[in-house]
Amino acid sequence: MDSRLPLHRLDSAQTYLVAWDGDDPIGHAPIAWHGSRLGHPEVQDVYVLPEQRRRGVASALTRAAERLAAERGRPRISLSFGIANDAARLLYKKLGYRDAGVEPERVTGTIIIRGQPTEVDDTLIYLVKDVDSGSSRSS
Ligand SMILES: CC(C)(COP(=O)(O)OP(=O)(O)OC[C@H]1O[C@@H](n2cnc3c(N)ncnc32)[C@H](O)[C@@H]1OP(=O)(O)O)[C@@H](O)C(=O)NCCC(=O)NCCS
Fold first, then answer.
1. Is 0.85 surpassed by the pTM of this model?
2. 96 alpha carbon – ligand 1 mean position (Å)
């Protein structure tokens, strides 16, 4: 699978959701259940293969993460995205996320993104969504 998808979070993710098109992995969404900035389960680095975008894959992965959180009795889920990432901003707005009310987080330096050391200078916006059993059923 790692010939298709960047799997650098596979070892560290506490849950690793994968979207499939037949036998082909086409997207993923790692979930951290502990140790997130906001203390809620955090969907980290949703990624969909470029040729599979705008088909609802990221929406399906994010909703699956919300259902898992609700099933585990966690009332809220969080995530962050780079301030200039319009696709992510529009995606999460459509899915009903709201501003988490925390200061945006400046991230600078060399970090590993999808398996590659990458220089970053970005500002992360944190969002949350309530995922009690009522809202998870309606999504
Ligand atoms: C952001 C990303 C995950 C979206 O994946 P996707 O499977 O294409 O998203 P969906 O098809 O579920 O999109 C749902 C909605 O989000 C919005 N959206 C998603 N991508 C968009 C884009 N490029 N431009 C504008 N709106 C977009 C739209 O409202 C879309 O609904 P529509 O297609 O009916 O108009 C994908 O572009 C990606 O992998 N990008 C690179 C990695 C990344 O930036 N991840 C986010 C990290 S937080």
1. yes
2. 14
